[in-house]
Amino acid sequence: MSERLFLLGRDPSTRPRADGSGPDRAPSPLPDWAQANPVEIEEALARALAKPAGGWAVLDASRTIRRGPRKYVVAGRELAAWWCSKPGDEGPRVGPDYCPHMGAELSKGSVDREGRIVCPWHALAFSGTEAKGGYAPLRTYDDGVLTWARLPELASESDPLTDRPFLARRPARFLDAVIRMEARCEPRDVIANRLDPWHGAHFHPHSFARLRVVDRGPDHVTVRVVYRIAGRVGMEVDARFDCPDPRTIVMTIVAGEGVGSIVETHATPLADGRTAIIEATIATSERTEVISWLPSASALLRPMVEARARKLWVEDVDYCERTYALRKKGS
Q: Which listed residue, of 31, 176, 248, 254, carries a Cα 20 to 30 Å from 61's Cα?
């Protein structure tokens, strides 16, 4: 017997089918385990991995980097990231976490009034925009929520460096929340996890009451899912998943409440068998009364959104680590 649910918000079942023939209300006759075809998921993953990235990788939430010098590892390289708050020149800076003078970790230093990172051992300073004494900074990009860095080792002949990352379309006004976690897997395992939406209601019953696929294409999948608000009270939406680059998958609400809201899941390689998962929730609303109070409510809502996302990823990290371990064993 199916669970009786109480749904709030707009009803996405009035959304026309992909072929325009009318509302899509009929569930698939196949059980979820049969729909989650590993061959088809692998084919969708291969198409995602073939997309260009331009050498870009997400480091963290921009607000996190604003709080002081921080150490990151990307593709085996130790990096120092900091924020330049010099008027007219604000923005993130990223470079090697290594002072060319005597090898100190710059991430343990400070940032001066000029926005330069200062070595903690002998006060040698680096601007983060110009090479100096063997110190070569990386190109960065702040998209308003996340900070990206461009690494030549992430590029190739078929995927050359680009001036900016490939960004998902975001709403004009939103509330954002970002989490960062690490897992013993590769970026492909993170993307594959999101290309398998059928596990959602089974693996995360505390967050999803029911889920079914309503539309599939070569580069996307759309699901109708009930997000639990509390107990049997939930909100049903249609959510579309697609990949703008090989290390990013984006979920966009296309019908129901919160149309235009997105969840960006970025997978950044740290080292062999280690990946950082940086997920940004970008919430918006078509309702004017909701949009008007989102900025003032951000301090209250952001920790709640991040806690929920982190709870999901504690479980999905287990999924990713399992698929990685099986692949390494040749299973």
A: 254
